[in-house]
Amino acid sequence: MALTDADHARLSRLHIDIKDHTANFLGYPVSKDFDYTDLLPFLEFPLNNLGDPFADSTWKVATREFEQEVVAFFADVLRAPKDNWWGYVTNGGTEGNLYGLYLAREMMPKGIVYYSQDTHYSVAKNLHFLGMRSIMIRSQLNGEIDYDDLRAVMHIHRDAPPIIFANIGTTMTEARDDIRRIRAMMDELALSHYYIHADAALCGMICPFIEPRPPFDFADGADSVSISGHKFLGSPIPCGVVIAKKNNVDRISRSISYIGSLDTTITGSRNGFTPLMLWHRIRSLGIDGMRARVDKALATAAYTERRLREIGVEAWRNPDCITVVLPKADATLKEKYQLATANGITHLICLPNVSTEQIDQFINDWQLLSKAEK
Amino acid sequence: MALTDADHARLSRLHIDIKDHTANFLGYPVSKDFDYTDLLPFLEFPLNNLGDPFADSTWKVATREFEQEVVAFFADVLRAPKDNWWGYVTNGGTEGNLYGLYLAREMMPKGIVYYSQDTHYSVAKNLHFLGMRSIMIRSQLNGEIDYDDLRAVMHIHRDAPPIIFANIGTTMTEARDDIRRIRAMMDELALSHYYIHADAALCGMICPFIEPRPPFDFADGADSVSISGHKFLGSPIPCGVVIAKKNNVDRISRSISYIGSLDTTITGSRNGFTPLMLWHRIRSLGIDGMRARVDKALATAAYTERRLREIGVEAWRNPDCITVVLPKADATLKEKYQLATANGITHLICLPNVSTEQIDQFINDWQLLSKAEK
Questions:
Q1: E-strand spans in A218-258?
Q2: Number of domains chain A contains
Q3: Residue B259 counted as domain residue
Q4: Which of A330, A342, B257, B305 is surrounded by the most beta carbons within 10 Å?
């Protein structure tokens, strides 16, 4: 059975359109400098990493061993406690965040979740889903959580264990909440029972390669971290990794007889192709390759900020960030470069694939449109 | 940047292993007669169908139009009410079930979920996740819900709206709960406010092609239906479709400014490749091709049941089902054919790709092992 000629033609047109749109975008945090050709032969098979990646299963059409290596790599980079970590490859950052919050809820059913105003909209949805009590904390102008407000609110609610949902890179300004500072606050307020989840969707693969290293991971106080694979690393299919402390995960695991596996993941059937992609990316880049991509992205961001300021645009960025924030762009630019806007600002995200030529073109377009308006 | 030779060798070994395991399995409900070669060029791009597939988005590296067609196809096959359906391509049946239960909870916060003993383990996990009150109902010996028990329990709890989680094909015996009969029970008990979700993971693409058609879809009384794409249809990546009544979905939608889209889906970033696969499958098979696959599978199941009985194995199956149930298999067979076992039974699932030769080989192995035991 095959497609008709008309259907093939539709696919060809879609391919052309998407190629075009991929070439132009500057406003979404996804990399496009990847090549997974090596892995295409695996799409012949009904891959499925069902259940816990670290448990045995009767089902063998899977890439569990590779998934284990991917998880171990991330646990290491995120400085998870030795022999006390667990994780799996998710369908994206949101699933990892949902997992972290779920763990926190199970451990602290009476806890209150604190998260800043600049938190991604999916988090409020997750909290509603899980029926968790939560309080939104003010953000600073740069998008980082307002520590004074957090401290004041936690002080009022000292009877409930705090669950911190920390942004390691907010959606709009890539602001990073300082986990070490938040942790110190717990000591100050004599709060011994708390949970910190780090949403490091974009920055989880940036921060480990920055000096000084932003405080965001297990060594800094996180209890779980979620990272997206399709963002800074890049992949054609949304994916991610969530890492948590194993002793916490063990508490919520349930013995499941059907797949002969302790099922600690959210979904049953799980993608077996995305772990291969992450493995391929890790192995082919290596730590040096990853650091080089971060350096390149930061250099492009610095260039972008400088060039925009030169033409009089009030662009700015948070320290060591690849996101350049600027005033809300004209609709033509928004359309052409697929720019996300919110609260009167927009942003360019200088992923490793973004070239200075592309930035120059954007600046040229901006100037042309500014003149046209006058 | 490229892989080392050693890494390439590991991938080659994995490919060989998986090919082998794919050739042999008989115990898991996933088809393997697919070919998506036409679509591989799309894996060059960072595809992402973020947000609602029917809403506009500034992000264009997506396959939303194709996803819309896929959803429309399923809505039609599942006889959803004209102009009152909505849906999206999920990461698998579990996500669709979670969505259906979430919708039910939002509409009936004080509802009680009823589901049979034979329900997939992920459902109890979902219910715990969503914090929903639930009561497990007895199953009949064939795996179908015990209607008398359901009626009795609902009668006791007539003050709470019932939320039915119906299995349209249980995991072990492919038993199908009769939605029309359950609906009639609601009338009998004067329950006007209720919700029925159909978990048609495997059978959603089987039942529409059987005469007489098993009562399982919207026309029979379902309010939402979840189907897996990687099960009967077949795909290398777990996926599925969930369809719900649009007026119900509208109630829980929230306006989200960031992606310029009403976000009614569970995750934010969504796979843009799986909708293309489902579209490809639908277009290349057509309704006739789908019916032919169902006929072939049913014929193989009948053959399997008969052959097993001929050699004295007490095999059986539910009416018009492709799953043949048999006593718990020997460990060697369990390993070789990747058979799932639970409660002292195992099963062979006669998907369209299963050949009578493969069944003959299984029977041969069974006989050899039986003799060896004597």
A1: 224-228, 240-245, 254-256
A2: 1
A3: yes
A4: B305
Instruction: Judge whether A257 and B328 are in contact, CB under 8 Å.
Output: no
- How far is the C-alpha of A217 from the C-alpha of A73, rounded, in Å? 14
* Alpha carbons A31 and B33: distance in angstroms, whole number: 33
Using CB atoms, pick whichever of B44, B48, B234 lies closest to residue A30: B48
B107: tokens are: 């509409």
Q: Mean pLDDT throughout B34-57?
A: 94
Residue A56 and residue A92 in contact, taking contact as beta carbons nearer than 8 Å: no
Q: Which residues of B touch A66 (CB under 8 A)?
A: 14
Main-chain phi, psi angles of B241, to 5 degrees: -135, 140
Closest chain B C-alpha to A163 CA, distance in angstroms: 17
- Dig out the tokens for A286 from the structure: 């290596």
Given a contact cutoff of 8 angstroms between Cβ atoms, the answer to whether A53 and A88 are in contact is yes
Which amino acid is located at B117 in the chain?
Q
- What CATH number has the domain bearing residue A166? 3.40.640.10
> Concatenated DSSP letters for B264-300?
-SSSSS--SHHHHHHHHHHHHHHHHHHHHHHHHHHHH
Length of chain B in terms of residues written: 374
Residues β-bridged to residue B115: B136
**CA-based radius of gyration for chain B:** 22
Which residues from A are below 8 Å from B93, CB to CB? 268-269
- Confidence class for position B259, pLDDT limits 50, 70, 90: very low
In a domain, A337, yes or no: no
Q: What is the pLDDT of residues A275-333, one digit of tens each?
A: 999 999 999 999 999 999 999 999 999 999 999 999 999 999 999 999 999 998 889 99
Nearest-angstrom CA–CA distance, B151 and B167: 17
Please check whether residue B58 lies inside any domain of the structure.
yes
- Preferred mutation among A1, A10, A256 to probe B, highest tally of B CBs within 10 A: A1
Give how far A366 is from chain B: nearest CA, Å: 18
A374 three-class SS: coil
Q: Which residues, other chains included, contact A287 with Cβ-Cβ below 8 Å and sequence gap of 6+?
A: none
Q: State the Cα torsion B344-B350-B354-B359 to the nearest 10°.
A: 50
**Cα–Cα dist B346/B173, whole Å:** 9
Q: Distance from CA of residue A184 to its chain's centroid?
A: 25
| Distance set, CA B229 to CA B70, B280, B315 (Å) | 11, 12, 28
CB contact under 8 A, B285 and A235: no
Predicted pLDDT at B167? 98
Judge whether A205 and A233 are in contact, CB under 8 Å: yes
Q: How far apart are the first and last CA of chain B?
A: 59
Closest by CA to A325, choosing from A202, A171, A123, is A171
CB neighbour list of residue A314: distance below 8 Å, 6 or more residues apart = A326, A327
Give residue B62's domain range. 39-282
pLDDT-based confidence at B215, cuts 50/70/90?
Answer: very high
- Rounded Cα distance between B211 and B85, Å, is 25
How far is CA A58 from its chain centroid? 32
Counting every residue written for chain A, the total comes to: 374
* Contacts with B14 from chain A: Cβ below 8 Å: 42, 63, 65-66
Please report which confidence band the pLDDT of residue B30 belongs to, taking 50, 70 and 90 as the band edges.
Answer: very high
Please tell me the pTM assigned to this model: 0.95
pLDDT digits (tens, 9 = 90+) for B116-161: 999 988 898 889 889 999 999 999 999 999 999 999 999 999 999 9
Nearest to B203 by CA among B177, B238, B164, B237: B177
pLDDT at A190 over 60: yes
Q: For B16-27, b where at least 16 C-beta lie within 10 A, e where not — what string?
A: eebeebbebbbb
> Residue A233 domain-assigned?
yes
C-alpha separations of B273 from A169, A244, B89, B98, B227 in Å: 27, 29, 10, 22, 17
Q: What does the alpha-carbon distance between residue B227 and residue B340 come to, in Å, rounded to a whole number?
A: 21
